[in-house]
Amino acid sequence: MPKKSLVEVFDIAPKGESIKSLKDYDIFPDKKLLDSLRNKIITNLIDNNIPDDKLLEQYINDEIDETLVGYDLGTIERNHIFNLIQNEINGYGPITELLSDNSVTEIMVNGPDEIYVEIDGRIIRDDSVSFIDDNHIIRTIQRIVQPLGRTIDAANPMVDARLKDGSRLNAIIPPLSLKGPVLTIRKFSRNLDNIEDILRKGTMTIHMARFLEAAVKAKLNIIICGGTGTGKTSLLNILSSFIDDNERIITIEDAAELKLKQSHVISLETRLVNYEGSGEVTIRDLVRNSLRMRPDRIIVGEVRGKEAFDMMQAMNTGHEGSLTTLHANSPEDALNRLETMLLMNDMDIPVSAVRGYIENAINLIVNIERLADGRRKVTSICEVVGMKDGNIKLKEIFAFKQKGVTKNNEVIGEFVMYKYTPKVYEKIKRAGITTLVDLFE
What confidence score (pLDDT) does residue 70 get? Predict the structure, then answer.
């Protein structure tokens, strides 16, 4: 079988596929040849082993000609190899293209040849991307975090940072990580879903959407809960879009992901510590400050600590219609998490009083999950109906009930609307909203 030129290979390769993926095609006697060429050039570049009398472009061309002797290399193919080197000099090494790929929502580097990505809610292994060794991963991490005022080394083996585009980075290296350096990047979503998108995807029903729209317009206090990567922020953005345009909205986030279309929006963002270990501004700092800014609505991207007390205080003192998300696996778990956060404030308050505080503040809890097949579903919308035997009582209004899975591992289930008129419906009617008559009357 005659050998194919790289030009021919590119003609049949999937559109947008990089030179790194060409090792999957039968064009070289040794499929690792291309990676070896890349690794040699990058290693010499990092170790400053390029001859002084050669320009970088000349050196790379010489290495290509020497390594790929006998293969027909055109301008396009050389440019691809040059792009790989360019990624090492000015980009983020092997993961540069993954960071620019909008279909990739998360990047997980577990080792030089063990890289996973999340696409459409599914985690898959990407064998087309690799690092040279552990040191290559660490150098890439250092290159990413240094402009952010952070560092990672043996003395500081763990770093959590936010990239300029809002993506969140976490890295941990030996001695804390026994496996070697591990890098995780949750990419910033530039195109958040709207209500039509999630209805089309089957994330919720039209009845659920109508109810949540009415609840937001009636200024109910709502918590969105769910696990990691379930779409809490996207759902928060959608619910926020139902707020009237004439209201003054203050959003508070670690990374500004919300994209509200209203005209009177003030966006606040936390700040990490600097080199000297000072200058940090937390969610709690911003929540407290927002109360002095005459807000009609306060939207907190996620509560996870002592700021929960200030958020509950705002909800209990006239700042109705507040929205936030919370990391929890069910509405009941969300209440337990909230209780724990309030008790973190080291105040001598009995648990019964804390629960009463939560019960008075929260109207609705919306739970969203990512199912086994990668699809996201709003699995529960329930209201806080009072206290019973010292515990907060919840009543479910809508739910998604899973029945099984198909042979293709697709989850089978149905949405349920219970024959129940929620207590909050009275408040919705008092707000002059009559769009739910067909559901509850």
Answer: 61
Which pTM value belongs to this model?
0.76
Q: Provide the CB-side half-sphere exposure for 237 (13 A, CA).
A: 21
Nearest one of 370, 371, 372, 425 to 397, comparing CA atoms: 425
Integer Cα distance of 55 and 78 in angstroms: 16
Structure-token pair, residue 210: 């109508």
For the chain, what is the total number of helices (H) and then of strands (E)?
15, 15
Q: Give the gyration radius of the chain's Cα atoms.
A: 26
Nearest to 256 by CA among 237, 277, 241, 231: 237
Higher per-residue confidence, 84 vs 310:
310
CA max distance for the chain: 85
Look at residues 224, 253, 242, 163 and name the one whose alpha carbon lies nearest to residue 382: 224
Instruction: Identify the residue whose tokens are 């010499």.
Output: 44
> How far apart (Å, rounded) are the C-alpha atoms in residues 65 and 53?
18
Three-state secondary-structure class, residue 196: helix
The single-letter DSSP state of residue 91 is S
State the Cα–Cα distance between residues 41 and 49, nearest whole angstrom.
Answer: 9
Per-residue pLDDT of 45-80, as tens digits, reads 777 777 666 676 777 777 777 776 666 555 656 666
Per the DSSP assignment, residues forming a β-bridge with 386 are 393
Q: Write 285-290 long-range contacts (CB < 8 A, 24+).
A: 286/252, 287/252, 287/311, 287/314, 290/250, 290/252, 290/314
Residue 17: both structure tokens together: 């596929």
Q: Which helix (H) or strand (E) holds 183?
A: strand 182-186
- Report phi then psi at 357, rounded to 5: -65, -45
DSSP state string for 222-290? EEEEE-TTS-HHHHHHHHHTTS-TTS-EEEEESS-------SSEEEEE-B---TTS---B-HHHHHHHH
Which residues contact residue 291 at a Cβ distance below 8 angstroms, ignoring those fewer than 6 apart? 298, 310, 314, 319
Supply 9's token pair.
């290979």
Contacts with 382 (C-beta within 8 Å, 6 or more apart), sequence order: 331, 364, 365, 367, 394, 395, 396, 397
